Every structure is written in structure tokens, then in C-alpha cells.
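Aim 2, interim progress. The first record below pairs a target sequence with its C-alpha cells.
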Amino acid sequence: MATFTEVNKHLSELPIGEHKISTIVKDIQSISSQKHLRKLSLAKQNNISSEYFAKCFPTNLNDVYVDISYQRSLKLKKIYDHLDLTDDSGNFLGFCTELCGTVDFAIRPNKKVYVWDGFRRCIIALLKGVEQIKGEAIIHPTTWSDAQCKQKEATYFLLKNSQSEPLKQEELFKSGCAQGDKFYLGIKEVLIDCELDVLGLNLGKPKLGGYVEFQKLVTKSPFSEGVTQPSNYFVAQASKMIAGVWNNEEVSGFMVSGLAHYLWANEKDSQNGNEYCDDITNIESNLKNFAVKKKGTQSSCTKDRLHSMPRQSVAWRICKNVMGMSSIDASKFIGMNDEQSEMLNVSGK
């Protein structure tokens, strides 16, 4: 038996790959609290008409799979919100055939049936004791590989869902990778180099928070030309330093962005006279000292950013908070004018 929190965490972090819908439902049914057992008991119903089942997709939902490679993360609260739906009289709505609509399935060459749109509705149906649902299926060519099937399903999923319920950028990233999109696969390569995880694409690594900033960082050439190493080298270096210091914490995309900019500026300074350049071991030591001895947080460096210079703002605070530079030196090192520096000084008080 498990708690709601444990099951919610498990389901939101399902590994990339295929999962049986019935297994997910059993996980939900394993929640031991009386509140949730009662909720699931009230959700059961046996009054669906035979006419409805006659029009349903023939495969029993217990035998259907879902490929998490391109699906949204499953949020258990969303499932329970649906179980709580009531009609105008306050009665539980139950399995509403009118609201459920039609679910989209795909049949792969191995004869397995996958739901590519309507994942949550299939789970809700099984929780309510309904084992069949209206649906339509695409049948993949028998010569296709599993990867080709997944790519086609991901393409359909992306096209359909981006037009209705907007997908978050990290969800677009996940689906884009499954689709084989070169833009997103390029970001995934950097993500793996950085030893970070987004929605299970690099499972087991520290989670990245602030994906949008990370995407901007690695796709919009944030660093000037003429650097001796590729700019993403600094991104990966920054990421590993942050994860090593604030272990067991989510790695902030803005912190990665700011520290990468600081490391780039440090490399640039080493080529132009070493006025502020510091040894990498000393930078790591200062970062650890800031986090451990001074109880410094990532947010203390990323808060109150200048809208026009978010990355430079974080780098400026790293100069001051972590490396102990004066405001004047930090501004010169990062490339800020007096007005910008003063705005950061005021906002940091």
C-alpha cells in the first residue's frame, strides 16, 4: 500500500517507454488512505448501456499500452478532479459518455494497441470500472520499426494537442525528441552533456527547473565569437558545478545560465590580461563555501533579474555573492553600465 504523494511522484516520473494502462490504474488503486479508497469506490459504476459498448473500440482497456516517450506527465490530481465531477444536483457525474468523446489508438506491427490521445480518459474509465471506450485507430505498416511507429504517433500527438490545450515548452521538447526533430534532439544532446533531466529524458540525473531559459541558452548563441571552446562547454561545466554543490536539489535554468556566462567571462578575461580571471578550482571552492558555510541558495543569485539582461544579472550576483567582487568590478567583468549595476544593487537589498 502507498500514499497519494508516493504514487503521484511515481506516476509523474514514469520512465520513458511503454506502460500498460492497467498497471498504472493498479498503482492508483494501491493508495491506502480511507479518503482515496472511498473516492475510488464511489467512482465505480455499472450502468453504462449496452448500446454504448456496441459502438466502442473492441480492445479491452486492460490490454492497452501508453508510450510515455511523447505523452504529458501524468498528474494524479487531474485524475481525481475528474472523479469528483458532479452534475447540477450535486450527484457524482460518473463515466459520462457524452463528455468522453473518442479516444485515438494506434496498432503497431507487434499487434499491441497504444493510446496516443486520450491517455487520461482511459485511466479514468478503468478506475470507474469501464473497460471499453469509443475510439478510432491508426494501423502502422507491418514493415515499420517500433521507432517509426513512435515517431508517427508523437507527430500526431504534437499536432493535435498543441492546437487545443497548449503544451508547455518542456512537453514540446519531450514530444519533439520522440518525433525525431533535429532542433529538440540538439537540445537533448546538451542536456545529456549537462547531466540533467527533463521529464524523464535523462532519467536518474538532477532535474532541471526553468527549461525555457535553458533552451534559450543553448540555441541562441549567447556567447560572443572567438572563445577558445564551444559555448556549450561552459553550460555543461556550470551545470555540473551547481548539481555538485546543491545536490538533491533541482538545478535552476537561470543559475546555469548565469554561471555559464560567468565562466565564459572568466575565460575571456584570461585571454585579455587576467585582470579578474580566477582558477576553476577556486571558483568551485567559493561556490561550495557560499552554499555550505554561508547557506547561500540558487535563488539568492537568480532573483530580481533585469528583464533586458537576465543572464548577465545572475552572473553579476555570482561575482558579488560567490566570488566577493565589488559592484564596480562585477559590472566591469560582466559588461554592465553604472545604471544597470545600481538597479541590481537596489533590488538586492
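The second target in this work package is listed in the same format:
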Amino acid sequence: MTNTKKDMADIDIGIQAIERNKAAIEECNVCIGGLSKLTGFRGEEAAFLQGQINAYKNILKILEEVS
């Protein structure tokens, strides 16, 4: 493989990674939005729901730092 072909392959891999990262960010935002709309929970259920939201927010933070 020539250097040019290798460079093009590397660029293609980078573009694919960026696209996957953007899709993951969108998915996190959708999940956070959906979970945030759930109301009326108390106690353990509310804590679990908040834990899920916090987990998605933490993942989102990491993804946004990478992009």
C-alpha cells in the first residue's frame, strides 16, 4: 500500500470515528431527554432513574471532550 493510500485509509477511519462519536452524542441526548420526562417516581425508583440520567451525562461529557 502506498503512503497516499495509507493516508487516505487513515483519514477514512478518522471520519468514521467522528461519525460514530456524533451518533453516540445524539443517542445520549435522546436518552437524557426521554429519562428526564419521566416523573412521579419516589424512593429507590427515583434514585435509579437519576442514576441513569447521571450516567448518560457522564458518558456525554467524555464524548464531548473527545470530539
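Residues 3-37 form the longest helix (35 residues). This observation will shape the mutagenesis plan for the next reporting period.
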